[in-house]
Amino acid sequence: MAKIxxxxxxxxxxxxxxxxxxxxxxxxxxxxxxxASRCLLLLxxxxxxxxxxxxxxxxxxxxxxxxxxxxxxxxNISLLRRAFKELxxxxxxIVTVPRVGIRLEASLQVQELDVEPVxxxxxxxxxxxxxMPLPAPSRGMTTVWWVLTAMLSCLFASVVTWRLEFDTRxxxxxxxxxxxxxxxxxxxxxxxxxxxxxxxxENALECENYPWVYLTVYPNFPRISALxxxxxxxxxxxxxxxxxxxxxxxxxxxx
Length: 255
Description:
Helices cover 33% and strands 27% of the residues. By secondary structure, it is α+β, with helices and mostly antiparallel strands. Residues 2-106 form the OmpR/PhoB-type domain.
């Protein structure tokens, strides 16, 4: 037998399942959290009496190995008031007594009933309607499938990671100049672009076929790289680019 509380003859509270529902329409139901359900049970067990806040703390939280703040306590009481209102009960039936505690109005009609638990949909389903399980795949096929899936996942992740990292790096490059038929871009993580400008003046690249140039120059680092592309680089485009490396002499290596 299950024990429920009938409130005002219209709403049932089933503590064991933490639920409130309208008895005339069980589709109108609200699930309560464990603490909110325990709070409502205490109020119904002490119907019409003021329950001190510390008693709530002890019975609802401390005895169940939890700690609670005043804010959490009043949030649960607020949840109960909203549940009452949504199911057609007066939310003012739950009364706060300042600096003392909470009580359930004595005018609230409460009946305690023992009912037979309703069979769940799964239990009531006829045996002949149950779906027969499909034959399990062989162990060898399962292993092959997982190996292929892992290989494809790794390949896809590698391609995406390479494209994202490369594109992220290039998006930080800033337009520098249009010279010698090329559109020059420079890495922006330097103090100034003197070495970039010097390189543009002193070097001629194949701007006719690869007019988009992404130039990387760092102070005190002898190598210069120039990525030349047929079109402006885009993340998912069919980019056709060539990388050129230049080594500066010792005198040019420092700014």
